Structures are given as C-alpha cells and as structure tokens.
Amino acid sequence: MELQHRKKDWVYIQKSSIDLAKRQGLEQGIEQVVMNSYRAGVKAELIAQITGLGEEQVKEIIRRNQRDEK
Predict the structure, then answer these.
(1) For residues 49-70, b (16+ Cβ closer than 10 Å) or e, as one string?
(2) Coil, strand, or helix at residue 69?
(3) Is residue 44 exposed (0-12), middle (13-18) or buried (19+ Cβ within 10 Å)?
C-alpha cells in the first residue's frame, strides 16, 4: 500500500514538473515573439493584438528585456 502511495506521489510530482516546464516554455516563446516584433518595428498595440496579451503586458516585457540587455 505504501509503495502505491509513493508511486502516486512520484507521478504527481512528475506531472507538475512537466506542466511547469510547458508554462515556462510558452512564456519564453511569447516573450521572444514580443521582442522580435518590437525590434522589427512593430508597435506595442499591434504586438498585443497578435499575442493576445494586454498592451501594458507587452510594454512591460519590452522594458524588462531592455533593462536586461544593458
């Protein structure tokens, strides 16, 4: 019985880790789209429409990445 509980816990931890990795990968991908679009001269308003993010979220991503590049 204890072995079954440990296996269930292990499966839960693995699934949680995979879900977290997917979310982080998606966030990084969207951030990359935002920055590539911005560097290509696309305005934040249009980037927001394309990505489905709010315009303020897009601007925050741009600001954060500009700080990190310095």
Answers:
(1) eebebeeebbbebbeeeeeeee
(2) helix
(3) buried
Collapse the DSSP code of 11 into the 3-class scheme (helix H, G, I; strand E, B; otherwise coil) and give the result: helix
List the chain domain ranges: 18-69
| Digit-coded pLDDT (tens) for 19-53 | 999 999 999 999 999 999 999 999 999 999 999 99
Task: Return the closest-CA partner of residue 59 out of 42, 44, 46.
Answer: 44
> pTM of the prediction?
0.76
Structure tokens at 66: 């500009």
